[in-house]
Amino acid sequence: MALNMWLNHCGLIVAALLPLAETAANDNAAAHRVYCNLLTVASIPYTTSGLNDDPNNAFSTMLAMNFSTSSNDWTAMFDTSKEAVTPKNPPEEKTPGTDKETWQTMWPQWWAAGRRCVTEKIGQGDKPAYPPISKPEQKKQAHRELKKLIDGTKHLVAECQTVKNDIKTKKTQLDSYLSEALLGEQNANGLPTPTKGIAAITNWGSACGPNLRGKSIAADFLCACNNNQDTSKQCDPNYDPQNWATGINVAEKWPLLKNSCKEPLAAELTAGQIHGALATFSAALQHADSGGTKYTFLGISSDHQCTGAAAKLCVDYTAYFDKTTGHTATKIPWKEKLEKAATTITVLEAKALEGRNLARQIQANFHVCQGIYAAAATGTLVDSVNNAISPLKPSTTDIQKPLAITKRQTQLALPLAYGMSLKAMRTKNAH
């Protein structure tokens, strides 16, 4: 896989370094390939790795299981059999005067848990997914153990939601970076706008002259493929250029120039693809010394001048480079946007991995809750806990020391009673 990526990368650079002066027709084909490559990576959609609603669904079911094991006095306050919308406020006559704020905050969640018992048939209904727990002592023990797990899962759910929010924010940033790299800032209707995405549209010199390039890939691409002398096809046989001695119709020419690029879009954008396209661009740049100054440009020119004439159709990037060494001195605006996009993709991938790990922990706790509920429903939860604890009772000869041991042994025995491995319990406790 890595070898194939390296070979593809080398192929792109070799293609970019093919002689720029090929023939009178298509003599700017190499620059066309470079800009097509940049256009492609800026157009590939990025899909965030799947963080679905399973963690929230699992936690909601945990809350519902806990609700179903509450006392009859408590569950009787929630008539969820006919309502489909969660009430925002608790009934005044049932709200304790000393705890109104907590009830106001928690009531929608409590009601939703009760409603989920109805919709998911937890402890009620025909053919319930979770059979009712008939024995009071089993129900009480289940409620205690479920609450412990829920309390230990709340922060995982909160962290998972934070990650999802971060991913959403970063994805919006990524889309903005890619759009602005391709079309410039304040682009509209898929076109670069004058002054923001392209310096001007009145003529080649006003759009593509010194200190005017780099606003967008689209603008530089148009500068490389439309001269101000004639309509010869210097970039690609499938693109009919416009003589840019006068105003260019960007709404017509930009879609045509885009369509002249033959590279199919990849299924998903990666940071490596962006870095590869930027490396291809850097490798294709030409340098020429004149009067002690090193000029940097992309396209065709017999010297270093980019005038827009057919023989000097190039994009001058000298202003972005050190004029002595030829090294990059400042960021080309669209290049900086692509670099930020690549960095953002790396962050998104790390966030997605973090979210998946949190989701797995929540799901594991959910399965433990299912085991607790099932044991209580079959009448074995209390017996399992007692059987795990009873052999560990302290002796009567020395109360203090055995008590400390018993507490630790109990912690180890409980997961065994619920069918958990010690390793799984340690993992859960770590979170």
Largest sheet: 3 strands, antiparallel
SS class: mainly alpha
User: What proportion strand?
Assistant: under 5%
Distance between the termini: 36 Å
- The value of Rg in angstroms is 34 Å
Oligomeric state: single chain
- What is the overall pLDDT average? 83
Function: VSG forms a coat on the surface of the parasite. The trypanosome evades the immune response of the host by expressing a series of antigenically distinct VSGs from an estimated 1000 VSG genes.
Keywords: Cell membrane, Glycoprotein, GPI-anchor, Lipoprotein, Membrane, Signal
Protein name: Variant surface glycoprotein 1323
Signal peptide: 1-23
Q: Would you write up a description of this structure?
A:
This protein starts with a helix and ends with a helix. It has a domain at 2-50 and 175-345. Helix content is 55%, strand content 3%. Helix 2 (29-43) packs antiparallel against helix 10 (271-284). It is mainly α and 431 residues long. The protein has 14 helices and three strands. The chain is elongated, with a radius of gyration of 34 Å. The chain has a three-stranded antiparallel β-sheet with strand order 1-2-3. The model is unreliable at 1-23 and 389-431 (pLDDT under 50).
